[in-house]
Write a structure and sequence with these properties.
By secondary structure, this protein is of the alpha/beta class. Helices cover 13% and strands 27% of the residues. Strand 3 and strand 4 form a beta hairpin.
């Protein structure tokens, strides 16, 4: 079994611990986080080491590291910690759920987190440090750039190119053969039918609150 250290002592760190522990050939042996955010001597029953001195407790020669962070700062924070871990000499793990359908034969980048019920069709390319939360469809010949975060139940049609550092919200739909510019944000339920410029933000309309309470609905 390969020894794994997880960067992150929040919800995603806890989830990474669960997934790697139950569905991979890694053994999680500890956690690390910047010294200012160390929650205590242990997290999930395992030792926590300040990232500044992580090599003292978890040698890069014997340990692999996984950065378990969200899309904070439009994925910049996660990307920065991946770079810092690499600079410290750590090899970086990737998790692909055994319950995902991954048909592409293209190599998947380091520090990716691909959860259950994703469908990744043939000829898809996935860069490094990409999160695919559960239940997405990634269509054939699509290309997901580095440091992206794709939430749940997103439909990426065939031949789509997603630039680096993009965030794509729940239930968004991207039509085929379009280009999503780098660092774009697509809100939940967004339907994108054409290329987007880098740094684009697409907001969607929330459900409207009715003035009639549910107790007055007659045909519900």
């Amino acid at each position: 079994m390969k020894k794994l250290v997880i960067f992150g002592c929040g919800d995603i760190g806890q989830l990474a611990h669960f997934y790697f522990s139950t569905d991979s050939d890694y053994t999680v042996v500890g956690f690390t986080v910047d010294a200012a955010y160390v929650p205590g001597p242990e997290f999930c029953g395992l030792p926590v080491s300040p990232f500044e001195r992580a090599q003292e407790s978890f040698s890069p020669k014997d340990h692999t590291l996984f950065v378990a962070l969200s899309y904070s700062q439009l994925n910049e924070l996660r990307a920065r910690k991946v770079a810092e871990a690499r600079a410290k000499g750590y090899p970086l793990a990737t998790y692909v759920s055994s319950r995902a359908t991954v048909l592409t034969r293209e190599p998947i980048g380091e520090n990716c987190f691909i959860l259950e019920d994703n469908t990744v069709q043939p000829f898809v390319k996935i860069g490094r440090n990409v999160t695919l939360w559960s239940g997405n469809h990634i269509g054939h010949h699509s290309n997901i750039g580095d440091d992206c975060f794709i939430t749940s139940h997103v439909v990426v049609s065939g031949g789509v190119k997603i630039g680096p550092r993009c965030f794509i919200g729940v239930n968004a739909t991207l039509r085929d053969h379009i280009v999503i510019g780098a660092a774009s944000v697509i809100g939940a339920g967004g339907v994108i039918m054409a290329d987007t410029a880098p740094g684009s933000v697409f907001k969607t309309s929330p459900a409207e609150l009715s003035s009639i309470p549910s107790s007055r609905l007659r045909h519900f």
